[in-house]
Structures are given as C-alpha cells and as structure tokens.
Design a protein that fits this description.
The chain is of the alpha+beta class and about 475 residues long. It folds into five domains: about 5-80, Herpes Virus-1, CATH 3.30.40.10; about 95-145, no CATH class; about 155-245; about 255-430, Jelly Rolls; about 445-475. The protein has ten helices and 19 strands. The chain has helices at about 5, 30-40, 60-80, 105-110, 120-145, 150-225, 230-235, 235-245, 445, 450-475; strands spanning about 20, 25-30, 55-60, 95, 100-105, 115-120, 265-270, 275, 295, 305-310, 320-325, 340-350, 350-355, 360, 370-380, 385-395, 400-410, 415-420, 425-430. The strands form four sheets. Strands 7-8-19-10-15-16-17 form a seven-stranded antiparallel β-sheet, with no helix packed on it. A six-stranded antiparallel β-sheet has the order 9-18-11-12-13-14, with no helix packed on it. A three-stranded antiparallel β-sheet has the order 2-1-3. Helix 6 packs antiparallel against helix 8. The protein is elongated and about 165 Å long. Residues about 245-255, about 280-290 and about 435-445 have low confidence and may be disordered.
C-alpha cells in the first residue's frame, strides 16, 4: 500500500481533510463520518461497524502528516515541471557539452544535431567526479588546519613562543625595577633617619648648651650663698641678676609645624618653626586657589580656650596665614574661604585681603612685620549658651587690630597654617606673650570671690553693730 493510500479516508478515498479519530481507532474525514452517521442513523464505524458513543476527537498527528505530504507532493510536481523542456514539453534527458545546455530529444534533432551530446546522468557522474577530485586539495588543507599542521598553526605557535619570551623579559625587567625601588626605598629611609639624627643632634647640642649655661649660673648662685655674710650682701644684686636667666619664650610652648604637610617646594626649618618657599616657576597660576599647594599646617590643633601666636613675616610682600580645619578629608582643589573651613589673611604686594568669597580688601597704613593671630571663644547669647570662636589678626608691634572673623564654629579643632609665597623669604612662627593657653572655666564663687568677701565682711559689721546696740539697750 502506498503512502498516499495510507493517508486517504476510507469513505471518500481522498487525502484526509480535518481527520478525526473514533474510539475504535479508525480515522475519517470529519465531514465524511458526519455524513455517514446521518445517512445510516447510527454511530457505527464504516470499517469495523463498532459503535462510537463518544464524539470523535481531532487526529492532529495525522493532519500534520497529511499537510507535510501535500507540501512535498506540490514541491515534487513543481520540480518535475522544471525538468520539462519549456519549448517542446518533452522530458529533459540529454546534455550538450558543446553549448553546456540540458536538452530534450526534440532539441537535439532541431538545434544540436552535430554537437557533442551525452546522456544527462552520464554528464552528471562525470562532472561530480571532477568536483570530487577538485575538492581533495582543499579537504587536505582543512584537515591540516584542524590537526594544527598548517602554516597558520606554525605562525600561531611561533607567536605564542614570542609572547612567552616577552613575558619572561617583562617579569625580569620588573624584578629589576622592584629591586631598584627596594634599594631606593631603603636609601631614602636611611637618609631620612640620618637627617632626623642630625636634627636631633643639633637640638640636643643646643639643649645641652643651655643646660650647661643654666647649671653654671645656678652653681654660682648656690656657691655665692655659702659666702660669709658681708661678701654675700656685697654680691647679692649680682647673684639676683644671675637667677633671672630663663629660657627664651620660643622654647616654652611654640607652634610646631608639621613637615608632613609641606609641599616639595617649601622648606621647613630643623626646629619646625620656620618655612621658606624654595622656588616658584614663572607664569605659574596663583596658588591661593589650591589649598594644598604651599600650605604648611601646625602639628597640633586648637580647641576651646584662648590661643595666641605670632608670625614674623618681615619684609615679605607675599604671604598667607591663618587657621583651618584639618586637610585629610578636604578635596584637593578648593577655594580658601570660611565656607570651606579657612579663615586667614593674605598679603600680595601692597594689597591686604581677607580669605573670603569676595576677597575683602583691607586698608592698612603700616605694613606689619610680625602678625599676631589670636583664637578665642565667646558667648553670643548668654541665655541660649551658644558659643563661637573668634579669629583676629593684629600688628604685634603696635597691638593694633587688622581684621577678625567671628562666628567661627567650635565643634572641630583649628590648625594654624602659613603659606610662604616669596622665594627665599622665611615665615617664622613664634609664641606670643600668651602661648596656647587654655581658658579656665571658673565657677561663680571663684569669679566673684572678692565681691563675696566684701559683702560678707559688710554683713558681719552690720550684725556686730546691731548686737552692740541691743546689748547697750539691755543695760
């Protein structure tokens, strides 16, 4: 039985159209089984006569098979029509090697009688054989490429070898660089330690000299006190003068600068109290807008209380000084303004300005050689207990106020800073008469002890007078 018969309905003997499946297992066209049941008035199968009480279900598998068969059949018919001569309607069975055309028998008689003609199948076999022979070299090349035996594979292996060699050289070079950096690190650390040792030696020598001088003075005074009475009294004034020797004020509580905040072109002195600008390139932009460009900070921040220090600016015509918050979390580029945590005074030639957003200009008649910076707290509102800080700048020689900032926040410590901008002109930080002293918060009794004592004695006097009068009247 052919495939078309297998796919034909037993009732209409045509290819299934919308096939349905009965309970007995036989399939029919939906229309054919409905017509059969209508004419026979019973729901039996036309093939096996078995009753089918249930409604038939669509046979999707059979329907898909029939549709595929129809598509293939139509394709085959179209292909067969293409293999028929369009002129004579005869089947094409010949091939003209002379004109490289397929022919039918009528074409050979009329147009290709003297040409070299071959049967179609023979021509196909011959040309397929030639194609297979022509495919052998590419197939060998493909096999060689797949097996890694071709020229490209050799080049790839060579490239891989070159990469490995280059990688080894790179690693060796970087090992050399690491060794060099290690030696350079050790050399710089050694130089740093040697520099610290030299500075420490200078400071120790300086301290030992002062200790020796003071010890000699104390010994002279103690030996003078052992003299006889007449000699002692004769030498008393001289001995007293010897006891008035003290260390310089700068040795008491100086503002010690932090060299780690110093930029490369700013030099910090060995005693950490003086800074000098080493060089400044021409046409370099104003460094004021860059808060880390030439700024050197104090090593200790100032909190609550009164803090005073002085900065010797001498005849320098370019400098900036003041106080600021720490620089650890501040961005690198930032204007020096109170909004960004900077309160300072700047001199640029004959111009003096405050570090504000608008760079407020100041009128100063006398150029100060020593600027006194004072940081102190004050109560803005005695009821709300709101405390602020005030930063003031004054001429130390005349004690005249230059400018001041008020309402400076009290929550964070403020660090002194200096910015030397004139080459080879140092800025020297020295303590003032009151050096980093912390204001003592006295109680009410301590602040008004004298007044309380006066009131106490006044009340006691009144009581004594009253007691005297009472006693007098009693007598």
């Amino acid at each position: 039985m052919s495939l078309e018969e297998e796919l034909s309905c037993p009732v209409c003997t045509e290819l299934f159209t919308d096939p349905v499946l009965l309970s007995c297992g036989h399939s029919f066209c939906r229309q054919c089984i409905n017509d059969h049941w209508t004419s026979s008035r019973s729901r039996n199968c036309p093939v096996c006569r078995q009753l089918s009480p249930q409604q038939p279900v669509s046979n999707l598998s059979l329907r898909n098979t029939c549709e595929s068969y129809l598509r293939e059949n139509n394709t085959r018919k179209e292909r067969d029509r293409e293999h028929v001569c369009q002129i004579h309607g005869e089947k094409i069975e010949l091939f003209c090697q002379t004109d490289e055309q397929v022919l039918c028998s009528e074409c050979k008689k009329h147009e290709h009688g003297w040409h070299k003609i071959h049967p179609l199948q023979q021509a196909v076999r011959q040309r397929k054989g030639k194609l297979k022979a022509a495919l052998r070299p590419p197939e060998k090349i493909l096999l060689s490429l797949r097996n890694g035996a071709g020229q490209d594979a050799k080049i790839s292996k060579y490239n891989q070898s070159q990469v490995q060699q280059t990688e080894r050289r790179i690693r060796e070079e970087f090992k050399k660089i690491h060794r060099f950096l290690k030696k350079e690190e050790e050399s710089r650390i050694t130089a740093l330690n040697e520099e610290e040792k030299q500075k420490r030696g200078k400071m120790e020598k300086k301290t030992k000299g002062r200790i020796h001088s003071l010890s000699d003075r104390l010994r002279e005074v103690e030996e003078g006190m052992k003299d006889d009475d007449i000699t002692f009294l004769q030498n008393y004034n001289c001995l007293m003068n010897r006891t008035t020797y003290t260390l310089p004020d700068a040795e008491l509580n100086p503002v010690i600068l932090n060299p780690n905040t110093s930029p490369p072109d700013v030099s910090v002195s060995d005693d950490l109290t003086s800074v000098t600008s080493c060089f400044r390139r021409q046409n370099e932009p104003n460094p004021l807008r860059l808060h880390r460009n030439r700024m050197v900070l104090g090593s200790v921040g100032c909190g609550d209380g009164v803090h005073t220090w002085e900065i010797e600016v001498g005849n320098s015509r370019q400098w900036t000084l003041g106080v600021c918050f720490g620089l650890e979390e501040m961005p690198i580029m930032q204007p020096l303004t109170p909004e960004n945590g900077f309160w300072g005074l700047r001199r640029d030639g004959d111009s003096y300005r405050l570090l504000t957003t608008g760079m407020s200009r100041l009128n100063i008649s006398v150029n100060p050689e020593v600027v006194r910076v004072k940081l102190e707290c004050y109560d803005e509102d005695s009821w709300k207990k709101k405390r602020w800080r005030k930063v003031s700048f004054s001429d130390a020689s005349s004690d005249s106020l230059i400018a001041q900032f008020i309402r400076v926040p009290l929550e964070e410590d403020l660090f002194p800073f200096v910015m030397p901008e004139k080459r080879s002109v140092p800025l020297h930080v020295v303590p003032a008469n009151v050096i980093l002293t912390v204001e003592q918060k006295l109680s009410f009794m301590e602040r008004h002890r004298v007044l309380i004592d006066v009131c106490f004695y006044f009340v006691m006097a009144i009581l004594m007078v009253m007691l005297w009068k009472i006693d007098k009247q009693g007598r």
